[in-house]
Write a structure and sequence with these properties.
The protein is an alpha+beta fold. The chain has a single domain, classed as tt1808, chain A (Alpha-Beta Complex). It is built from 4 helices and 14 strands. It has helices at residues 15-23, 47-62, 89-92, 117-130; strands at residues 2-4, 31-35, 38-42, 66-68, 72-75, 78-80, 84-87, 100-101, 106-112, 135-140, 145-153, 156-164, 169-170, 178-179. Helix 4 links the parallel strand 9 and strand 10. It starts with a strand and ends with a strand.
Length: 183
């Protein structure tokens, strides 16, 4: 299901479309996001998609980083649900029961491409940069590469590091370690 707006709106102006997003009654495992004025509904991911996330999550947890899926993140380009949102223990100790959270305190988001990779490559990249999330890791299964975006500035990331999907991914500070064997 896709609902279109005439043009993207600022964060305060999600209005009716944001309300519609929050009122959707989806089948179990499905998720809906508001991406540049479009409600995008996605089915549950497949095993390979989740295997990438499991390997990344495991390595982050060994280094005392918490990573969760299904955390709704508000960005200037919409309401996104990253495959993984990575933050410190302090971030997750906040007292909030809201479905959608601001991006302050999120150190990295991870997306693994699925049926609509262009949203991950473009709109989500720009949204995360505008939300000032320091690191965005994209595992692009179709192109068989990882793309690490860092140093958000003026609505995009200044540093972009592409690697074949089979190669290790060095993460910048505050992580300062290398992800290995994500495939």
């Amino acid at each position: 299901m896709t609902v279109l707006m005439e043009e993207p709106r600022a964060l305060d102006e999600f209005g009716e479309l944001g309300e519609l997003l929050d009122s959707l009654d989806l089948p179990p495992g499905y998720k809906a996001e508001l991406i540049e004025g479009e409600i995008v509904v996605m089915p549950p991911p497949g095993f390979n998609h989740e295997a990438f996330l499991a390997m990344i999550h495991y390595q982050l947890s060994l280094r005392k980083w918490l990573a969760v899926g299904n955390l709704g993140v508000i960005t200037p380009l919409g309401k996104f649900i990253p495959d993984l949102s990575v933050a410190t223990f302090e971030y997750f100790r906040r007292d909030s029961d809201e479905s959608w959270q601001g991006s302050d305190g999120i150190a990295m988001v991870v997306e693994v491409t699925s049926s609509n990779p262009e949203k991950d490559r473009d709109a989500k990249r720009r949204g995360y940069a505008l939300a000032n999330i320091p690191v965005y890791l994209l595992v692009d299964r179709q192109r068989k590469e990882t793309v690490l975006f860092s140093e958000p500035e003026r609505g995009d990331y200044v540093v972009v590091a592409r690697r074949p999907i089979t190669e290790p991914v060095p993460l910048p500070a505050p992580f300062s370690f290398t992800l290995t064997d994500i495939l």
